[in-house]
Amino acid sequence: MGFPELDDAVSRFRFAQSCLGLLGCLCVCYAVWTPHWLNGRGLWSEWNNTISEESHREAAAVNAVEAERVFGLVSFLIALSTGVLCLVFALWWTSRTVRSYSNTRSLLLAGQALYPSTLLLLTMASTGFFFLFSWSLFTYQHREEIGGDPSGLGASYWLGAVGWVLLLVVETAVFVAERSVVPDILPDLEEAVEAWRISSQLKAAKRAADWSGEMKR
Hints:
- This protein is an all-alpha fold.
- The protein has 2 domains: 9-184, Up-down Bundle (Butyryl-CoA Dehydrogenase, subunit A, domain 3), CATH 1.20.140; 186-217.
- Helix content is 76%, strand content 0%.
- It has helices at 9-33, 55-91, 95-98, 101-110, 116-141, 143-148, 155-181, 186-216.
- Helix 5 (116-141) packs antiparallel against helix 7 (155-181).
- The protein is elongated.
């Protein structure tokens, strides 16, 4: 582990996105597993069904609670992997990583550049989407209680809201800003590969000449 690379716009945007992602993932993980959503209860608390006495409405309420928990658990698992990815890109990834020969050659063969910010956007958006779904279901299920006494909403609920806003809204805005500011790296990669190709040909020709000279002796 070393100091974050902040020498150019690419590295600064990457570090900013990584920090946003890590903070958003921490908020999501905290919200999923803590009970401070509404009146001291959370996703995993047992709630009295006060919606209706009708059996089909009760079944719908149970299904909604199960969906909240499933999407919350999925978002937690994705948040763990996204958080690790954010740490890797923030602390270990450098501009030299993407410009290694093997990476450069494979990227050019695929015809596209490897942008860490794109991978961050995809994983962060997935985390935010699944948690937003869980958060929205919870809000809808308890809309009457929330409307009657909004002060009952706890830290877990609001930190969860901060989490999905960071992962979906703020991250998307930073990604769009990066794409409009940072130039495409493919031309530089093509020049690097061409330089490596010429260098390899010259070395091969030199070895062939040396071998031919030794054979004549």
